[in-house]
Amino acid sequence: MGSKALILAAGVGRRLAALGPKPVVRILDLPLIAYPLRSLFMIGVIEAVIVVNSENKPLIEEALREIENIPEVDYIVNPRPELGNGYSFLLGSQSMSGDFLLSMSDHIYPPTMAERISSSEAPSLGIDSDPSFIEISEATKVRVSGQRVLEVSKSLEAWDGVDVGLHHLIPVEMEIPGGPVELSDLLTAFARGSHLSYVDVRGCPWTEIDTLEDVESLLSGTRRRVLERVREEWQ
Hints:
By secondary structure, the chain is an alpha/beta fold. It has a single domain, classed as Spore Coat Polysaccharide Biosynthesis Protein SpsA, Chain A (Alpha-Beta Complex). It has helices at 34-42, 57-64, 85-93, 111-118, 183-193, 212-220, 224-234; strands spanning 4-8, 26-27, 30-31, 47-52, 72-77, 100-104, 107-108, 124-128, 141-145, 148-153, 161-169, 197-200, 207-208. It is globular and about 40 Å long.
């Protein structure tokens, strides 16, 4: 299991702009980004590198300053967040020297889910073959064969699971491009170049926060179950 995590938080998050930068949107008493950080801390992650943009960096630093039970945090600034989360991943992965957990900053999941993914022996994507608390139409889909990942894309019509926003990876040497690059394209390239397995977390409650409706559902709607499970496991 990796004791280090890479968190991607450089996106603009325009659909939640009314509440402020997405990583620091308050979910009960904590900023959104604290949810993956604390769940990772609970399974033994002691160091996290967060890829941010120049505008949200001071806000994230301030939001996390007094938060307990999270890993020690370092920051990498993505000077061109418009180039996509793949660009952020390539910038951040340069700081990884061994296996690590890659997490999106806008996903909420319990420590038990993180433990299942981090315990994989081979580099693995976290997928869910029967997701309950996300909008499938907006999810990144994954196609697999046996225990091998074949393709990762939002546009897949036939798929075997959706990307849960948490993966157990190893550093990969890839040249940083000058144009936009999506993480799903990089993961597909990695899968085609070497063996990339997966962990199906079917049955674990998790969610992704993209819109005001997602926040409302998390606080008082159908996704409230995710929030309750996560905070219950933190106790």
